[in-house]
Amino acid sequence: MVSFDSKDLSTGKLHGYLLSAVAPRPIAFASTVDVDGNPNLSPFSFFNVFSANPPILVFSPARRVRNNTVKHTLENVEATMEVVINVVNYDLVHQASLSSTEYEKGINEFDKAGLTMLKSDIVKPFRVAESPIQLECKVKEIIKLGTEGGAGNLVICEVVKLHISKEVLDDNEMIDQEKLDLVARAGGDHYSRAKSGFFKVPKPLRTMGIGIDAMPEAIKNSMIFTGNDLGMLGNIEAFPTDEAIADFVKSVGEHHADIKEMTHREKHKMARNYLSYGDVDSAWKLLLS
Amino acid sequence: MVSFDSKDLSTGKLHGYLLSAVAPRPIAFASTVDVDGNPNLSPFSFFNVFSANPPILVFSPARRVRNNTVKHTLENVEATMEVVINVVNYDLVHQASLSSTEYEKGINEFDKAGLTMLKSDIVKPFRVAESPIQLECKVKEIIKLGTEGGAGNLVICEVVKLHISKEVLDDNEMIDQEKLDLVARAGGDHYSRAKSGFFKVPKPLRTMGIGIDAMPEAIKNSMIFTGNDLGMLGNIEAFPTDEAIADFVKSVGEHHADIKEMTHREKHKMARNYLSYGDVDSAWKLLLS
Fold it and tell me: Do A18 and B55 touch (CB under 8 A)?
């Protein structure tokens, strides 16, 4: 381990570490207008959802580390307390990146990035027609976190209207994550295309897993199982019954050598195989046979 | 487009839409202690970095949509104003998921998830030894966003100490995103492994791209170019000079049929080929030849 007190690091270095450590970050493609109605558009990855009731998104147009100037987006939300947050999918990446160029005040990034302004229903800022989800927001509060370069500004937004492209909805009118094809920011120049890395973990919330502490020592301390293997094994509600184990041994016996003669090591390896298919039940029956 | 007023949606439905729309979300594996020092550990994906100076992370242990109860993590940070935020990499996913089980107060999720408690330097909560980056934080403020089920609570944390595993550092002591191998949450049961979806986009900040509005009509309105293609083409500072174009035509002429006789369509297709390799310079020289 390398350890640093935050106060001993330069803002630039700390900025770099935090942006690599907290990732991948979703992107708010924020559309605002100034007091005269001139549009502005810029992406922000200091962004997330934080509440469903009320529906709250927060993004942070930070003061620039380099010269302590602020972004037009911040000036605009301070003046109008309105923003449309559009999501960024894979097809929009280069245009979103282009719009983050520091064009002068008054330059319309919709034009620069070749994107289409769509009138909103409730707020003044325009929606990005090319974005598959557009969220009209009223700004509730802006919290300044500091006054120096690198200081963030929490823009606390309440979503008042959602627009979702039919192309990303499934038959139940829910959002299909594969069709949506979102991208996120990570450290350095890295972007991450979410769906390339999709995998599923069954939700543990309703069941009460036995936990790794409740496992036999030989399993808990196995040299074969990884932390992920143990995590899967710990997420069962109860050990299988003796009867279920006996049935399992009988059914496997038809295809496999005598389980009773397997060593711990052999059983753990075979159990890992079951786990790799998500078959936690068979893994446990084998381990306890 | 399907459009909804937020107030017309149930909290459950709105929650589902927002969690799918704002993704992938980084994960805070939050370690806290109660007033008696009993440890608690739970993952949260309403989380991000928002400022480098001061270094601020925000996460939200929301009131449960289902029964409007609050999480032990929230009670603990309210009581002690301290937390260690550990990052979650691919090797930790199942253990992090297991620790999100709603065990009773007083149950130590470090034990349940088979994770190792590591003493912190500045704050009382323990670090997760298995996590490659551990961030000791003082809580500056907790902002309650509502009182009903689904209401978030912004826990505003200042990072006071960073611990980074040497295994994820490169030769310059910067964090290597591939080695770090972070995961994030998306809608439904989806997780996303960031590095599976990594790609790079050159940062546009220091240059001032000509923008898509400055391009010849035939290119801007091409049926061949996607938005991403135009975004890349718009991110040059200036068109290539006549001399550079003439040199390009000469050099390509040695390997290729006469460029002068190509149609717009043929040029656009060949330019797309250059763009697919990130060669924006050659794409422009071809297009303007």
Answer: yes
The interface pTM score, or ipTM, of the predicted complex is 0.91
Q: Which two tokens stand for residue B199?
A: 């790609």
Q: How many C-beta atoms surround the C-beta of residue B230 within 10 A?
A: 24
Predicted model pTM: 0.92
Q: Which residues of B touch A198 (CB under 8 A)?
A: 186, 190-192
Calculate how close chain A gets to B251, using CA atoms only, in Å.
29
How do the pLDDT tens digits run along chain B, 289 residues long?
999 999 999 999 999 999 999 999 999 999 999 999 999 999 999 999 999 999 999 999 999 988 999 999 999 999 999 999 999 999 999 999 999 988 888 899 999 999 999 999 999 999 999 999 999 999 999 999 999 999 999 999 999 999 999 999 999 999 999 999 999 999 888 999 999 999 988 776 566 889 999 999 999 999 999 999 999 999 998 999 999 999 998 888 766 667 878 888 899 999 999 998 889 999 999 999 8
Question: Residues of A numbered 48-67 whose beta carbons fall under 8 angstroms of chain B's beta carbons: which are they?
Answer: 48-58, 60, 62, 65
Q: Could you please report the per-residue DSSP string of B53-122?
A: TTEEEEE--PPPTTT----HHHHHHHHH-EEEEE--BGGGHHHHHHHTS-PPTT--HHHHTT--EE--SS
The DSSP line for A68-125 is: ----HHHHHHHHH-EEEEEP-BGGGHHHHHHHTS-PPTT--HHHHTT--EE--SSSSS
Domains, chain B, ordered by start: 6-197 (2.30.110.10), 204-287 (no CATH)
